[in-house]
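User: Sequence recovery, please. Input:
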């Protein structure tokens, strides 16, 4: 199901609220539980999906932007990111890129494509 921008914004706000974000409010008045704030931010990013996980991975490399406890917690998104299902990935490729028949050579029998094979496949199709 494709969500409208408004529905996605409501989902993002709902997930952030469920993890206690009010986060900006908490950090502005010196939250008493800084370790839990960092953990909750990571959990919220995980729940919000691949785009937010990528944002978390990127900002986890920027020690100049966040306190060390946030860097440490968001680094888990680089090391232990939740898996992304093959079926969901295939659906996105087929729908968004118009690729209905994937070349079986480009995908392993285990249904675990390598990023290199994805780039090669797309390069050939473009």
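Assistant: Recovered sequence (126 residues):
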């Amino acid at each position: 199901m494709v969500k409208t921008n408004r529905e996605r914004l409501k989902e993002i706000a709902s997930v952030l609220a469920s993890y206690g974000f009010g986060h900006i409010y908490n950090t502005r008045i010196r939250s008493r539980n800084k370790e839990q704030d960092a953990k909750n931010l990571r959990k919220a990013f995980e729940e919000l999906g691949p785009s937010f996980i990528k944002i978390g991975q990127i900002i986890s490399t920027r020690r100049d932007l966040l306190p060390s406890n946030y860097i440490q917690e968001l680094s888990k998104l680089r090391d232990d990111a939740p898996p992304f299902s093959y079926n969901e990935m295939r659906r996105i490729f087929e729908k968004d890129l118009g690729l209905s028949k994937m070349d079986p050579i480009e995908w392993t029998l285990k249904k675990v494509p390598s990023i290199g094979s994805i780039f090669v496949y797309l390069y050939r199709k473009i």
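The mean pLDDT is 75.
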